[in-house]
Automatic annotation (TrEMBL):
Residues 40-191 form the HhH-GPD domain. This is Adenine DNA glycosylase. Binds 1 [4Fe-4S] cluster. Belongs to the Nth/MutY family. SUPFAM superfamilies: DNA-glycosylase, Nudix. The gene is mutY. SMART domains: ENDO3c, FES. NCBIfam families: mutY (TIGR01084). Its EC number is 3.2.2.31. GO terms for molecular function: purine-specific mismatch base pair DNA N-glycosylase activity.
DNA sequence: AAGTCGGGGCC
DNA sequence: GGCCCAGACTT
């Protein structure tokens, strides 16, 4: 264990008490609010998650209120935040807490980590903040700060690295105030020891920081590999009927956007023109089923929607249908459905003009 | 152990 | 363009 561990915790906490942001979940030790905030903030910047937290607390002030909502309503409120399995697990766990645990959250790390959507980080955060259990959190901020200050070059996304950083974080933890200490470490990473161009010359740790000493700040933390981004080609068929109805389908099964809605989707292996679209069996079935009379391409240049690991080259095709399309919904009700941002952008542009 | 899962902000 | 974000789950 590093000799200056006690100094590290003290300096960190002192810094935190001065510089911490005033966030709505801070100051509470109600596990419902802490749990909700932690799920929302997984892989999500505070600035992006904050409005969603406020919306959720207002719509669902208690875990019972969240459990009583429908998954559809929860997904609609989550729309735009991404990683939608978080929303589905959130709703599932709310029901589990209410129906199986008498509305009471588990009281320690071991119990919390069994909840769906709650892993090592989130269980540690809730346990330390709500119950003062000395469990160290390790998130992206912690990896960065510890790798730099203590000069740890083990890749943070390797099995060995995860083990090593968790162990180091646990040794450094101030057990007299684990919740405050954990938040201080993360806040320091988020606000001072940032990924790009941190102000090392004024840093409170620059007399001790291994990365600063060895001029390795820009190389830490070490991360293995780059992801292989795949290209996919989406063709959305936007059906317009004479009585202002259209067709939306729910995405089921595996893959992106599970549980969200979209227009009928035809995926191709490259960008296609109208002739090629009409050659597709799936299109012919759709055209026959809904008696599509004509089809026109809305955007000549594809919309490129970028996800972490795939780029979606998307074209919207507008089709006119007979009045009697089945399972249709009114266009004015489209906004009631949770849809991917890619579709929300199109809907806003197309139906409001 | 490697893949998968979103969207946005920053450089 | 690439990287990262108060990570978790599946295969």
């Amino acid at each position: 264990m590093p000799k200056f561990a006690p100094f590290f915790a003290n300096k960190l906490t002192s810094w935190y008490l001065i510089h911490k942001r005033d966030l709505p979940w801070r100051g509470s030790d109600n596990p419902y609010y802490i749990w909700l905030s932690e799920i929302i903030l997984q892989q999500t910047r505070v600035a992006q998650g904050l409005p969603y937290y406020l919306k959720f607390v207002e719509a669902f002030p208690t875990v019972e209120a969240l459990a009583n909502a429908s998954e559809t309503d929860v997904l609609k409120l989550w729309q735009g935040l991404g990683y939608y399995s978080r929303a589905r697990n959130l709703h599932f766990t709310a029901n589990y807490i209410v129906n199986t645990c008498n509305g009471v959250f588990p009281k320690d790390y071991q119990g919390l980590v069994t909840l769906k959507g709650v892993g090592d980080y989130t269980a540690s955060a809730i346990a330390s903040i709500c119950y003062n259990e000395p469990t160290a959190v390790v998130d992206g901020n912690v990896y960065r700060v510890l790798s730099r200050v203590f000069g740890v070059h083990t890749p943070i996304n390797s099995t060995q690295g995860k083990k090593e950083f968790k162990s180091l974080a646990q040794q450094l933890l101030d057990e007299s105030q684990p919740g405050t200490y954990n938040q201080a470490l993360m806040e320091f990473g988020a606000r001072y020891c940032v990924p790009q161009n941190p102000e090392c010359s004024n840093c409170i740790f620059n007399d001790r920081c291994e990365a600063y000493k060895t001029n390795a700040v820009g190389q830490l933390p070490v991360k293995l590999k780059k992801r292989n981004v795949k290209k996919r080609y989406f063709n959305y068929i936007v059906i317009l009927s004479e009585n202002d109805k259209t067709l939306l389908q729910k995405r089921t099964g595996k893959g992106i956007w599970q549980g969200l809605y979209e227009f009928p989707l035809l995926e191709s292996t490259s960008e296609i023109n109208e002739f090629q679209l009409k050659e597709m069996n799936a299109f012919q079935e759709l055209a026959k089923k809904h008696q599509l009379s004509e089809i026109t391409l809305y955007n000549e240049t594809s919309v490129i929607h970028k996800l972490s690991h795939q780029h979606l080259y998307t074209r919207f095709w507008i089709g006119s249908a007979s009045e009697k399309i089945t399972n249709s919904i009114s266009i004015k009700n489209v906004k009631e459905y949770a849809v991917p941002v890619l579709l929300q952008n199109f809907i806003t542009e197309f139906f409001s003009s």
